[in-house]
Amino acid sequence: MKNPLSSDFTIGFLGAGQLARMSALEAFRYGMQVAVFSDRPEDEPVQFMTPHSFTGSFSRVEDMIEFAKACDVITLENEFIDSEVLLRLQEASGTPIFPDPRSFALIENKRIEKETFEKAGIPVTPYAVVENAADLKAFGLKYGWPFLLKSSKGGYDGYGNKTVHNTEEAEEAFRKLGGDKGREILAEGFVNFTHELAVQVARNEHGHVVYPCCETIQKNHICVAVKSPAPIPEEIQKKAQQLAVAATEAIDGKGIFAYEFFLTTEGELLLNESAPRPHNSGHYTIEGALTSQFENHVRAVCGLPPGSAEMTAPHAAMINLLGTDDRSARIDRAEEALLEKDGHLHFYGKLSSKPGRKMAHYTLLGEDASVYDRAASLTGKIRI
Ligand code: AMP
C-alpha cells in the first residue's frame, strides 16, 4: 500500500451512514481523499461529503468494482456484506480490504462467531442451533424459559431477535425469523445481567490499543446511552479488556473492533456480540479519549500505528439522540446542551428524522459519575 499520508491516498467506505461519516472526518484530517459506496438512495450522511460517491448493491462485485478501483484501501461500517463477496472484490480490484474478509468470515454468522470465540477461551452465552419444534422444546427444558431466538445472520439492534416464553411463542418466532425457510436460527439462554458492557480495540501490524470498559444502556434493544468507565469494579473492567484483546487476536483483526459483554448477576463476563467496525458504544471517544475510535479506525486500516486510547477526563457520558418526530432533520432546544462546558453535540447529516432513528449524539465529560445524569437532563428537552 502506498504511504497513507499522501494527498492522493483514497480510503473507501462500504456504507455511508454515521459511522462512515465520523471515520471520514478523521480521514480528511489526515489529508486523505474519501470514497464511499452505498446501496441506498440519497439520504446518507457521507454522500454529501465527497464527490467520490458510488451506489449499487452490496451483494454484486460488479457493482462495487469501480468504487474499489478508485480506492487505495477499503473498509466497512457494517458487517452485512458477505465475506465471500468481499474476498472476490479484493481479488478482482487488487485493493486491500480491512478488516480482512477472512476475519469477517469468522464472525459474520453468530454460530461461527460463538465457535471462534469459545475456541479462544472466551466465555459466550449458552446457545444451540435449532431446526424444528423438538429442538425448541429441548432448549427450553435444558436452559429454562424464556430464551432468545436469533437469526445467525443479519441481525442488529434487536432486529432478528425474539424473546420467547413458551413453545407456542418459540415456534411462531422461529417461523417469523425464517427458520422454516432454511434460515439458520440460534437459541440463546436468557442471561440475567447487572450491566451490559462494551470494549473497543484497535489493532494492526504495529500492535493494539484497548479502550476503557464502558457500560451501554439499552431501551427496546437500542443503545440509548453510554457511561465510561463502567460503574463496576476495576478488576472486572480489566478482565473485559483482556477478553476483548483476546477476541481481536482470535480473528487476527486489523481495524477497529467492539465487543459487547453481559456482566451476569453471578459476576461472570459473557461475550454477546462483536462488531468489526466503529461502534455506538465508542462515540464518546471523540472527545473522551486521546485518540477516538474513528481516528484509530482510519489509522489501523491504513497501516498507521494506533494512537492512545486513554481517556481525556475521569468520566464521560454519551446520550444517543434518537429521532423524536417524523420530519426533515432538525435539532430544536439544544441551547442548554451547547452551553455546557465540555458538552459536545454531533449531528449526523441525515436528511429526515423518524422516531427512534439514530440522528445525533451528545457527549459530556467531567470529574465524576454525575456527568451521566447531567447529560441526560441537558438533552431531555431536545426535539429532533
Ligand atoms: P443483540 O442484537 O444480540 O445485541 O441484542 C440486543 C439486546 O437484547 C442486548 O443488548 C440485550 O439487551 C438483549 N439481549 C440479547 N441477547 C440476550 C440474552 N441472551 N439474554 C438477555 N438479553 C439479551
Detailed description of the structure:
This protein is an alpha+beta fold and 384 residues long. It has 12 helices and 19 strands. Strands 9, 10, 11, 12, 13, 14, 15, 17 and 19 form a 9-stranded antiparallel β-sheet that branches. Strands 3-2-1-4 form a 4-stranded parallel β-sheet, with helices on both faces. It is globular. The termini are far apart. The model has no long low-confidence stretch (mean pLDDT 96). Bound molecules: adenosine monophosphate. Adenosine monophosphate is lined by residues 125, 148, 155, 158, 161, 188-191, 196, 218, 221, 272-273.
Mean pLDDT: 96
Bulk shape: globular
Distinct ligands: adenosine monophosphate
Reported for the largest beta sheet, the result is: 9 strands, antiparallel
Draw up the topology in text.
Elements (H helix, E strand, L loop, with lengths): L9 E5 L3 H12 L3 E6 L13 E4 L5 H9 L3 E4 L6 H11 L7 H5 L4 H10 L7 E4 L2 H11 L3 E5 L9 E4 L2 H10 L8 E5 L3 E12 L2 E4 L3 E6 L2 E7 L5 H17 L4 E10 L4 E7 L9 H4 L4 H10 L12 E8 L4 E2 L6 H5 L3 E5 L4 E2 L4 E9 L4 H9 L5
Parallel strand pairs: 1-2, 1-4, 2-3
Antiparallel strand pairs: 5-8, 6-7, 6-8, 9-10, 9-11, 9-13, 11-12, 12-15, 13-14, 15-19, 16-18, 17-19
The structure holds adenosine monophosphate.
The site of adenosine monophosphate has 14 residues, from strand 8 and strand 14.
